[in-house]
């Protein structure tokens, strides 16, 4: 099946390459803070859900608990996250961004939004709306499906 004159495989390859480059560009917006993409993503969830348990953060990020524990330990060491005992479950800890973590997250998020504004400004309003429709309609379902059943032919 062809869309817009490109075979689906060619389109997928071009979009994958674009996404890789876009991620690289987004990472350049936080070099002064030395955050990895995974750290930034976790901080975004912590900003939206202060006091979240490590296990819940791992689940939302689609990673194993030990992986998230190591990531959080790095954020703690950098003074960006504080871990507190969970009064309702002594086996788990609750995470919150420190004031420095909140400022760092807000700074990096603002820079990333600026990058995407620049990108979107190159597109027609209809193209921007199509992208937003896809994000609103499909991304959460795609993400959940891939986590539940990762493609085997990669």
List the helices and strands and how they pair.
Elements: E1 2-3, E2 6-7, H1 8-28, H2 37-48, E3 52-53, H3 54-61, H4 65-77, E4 81-85, E5 93-97, H5 99-120, H6 125-148
Antiparallel strand pairs: 1-2, 3-5, 4-5
Task: Report what the structure shows.
The chain is mostly helical and 154 residues long. The protein folds into two domains: 30-111, Arc Repressor Mutant, subunit A (Orthogonal Bundle), CATH 1.10.10.10; 123-154, no CATH class. The protein has helices at 8-28, 37-48, 54-61, 65-77, 99-120, 125-148; strands at residues 2-3, 6-7, 52-53, 81-85, 93-97. The strands form two sheets. The protein has a three-stranded antiparallel beta sheet. A two-stranded antiparallel sheet has the order 1-2. The longest helix has 24 residues, at 125-148. The radius of gyration is 18 Å and the shape is globular. Residues 150-154 have low confidence and may be disordered.
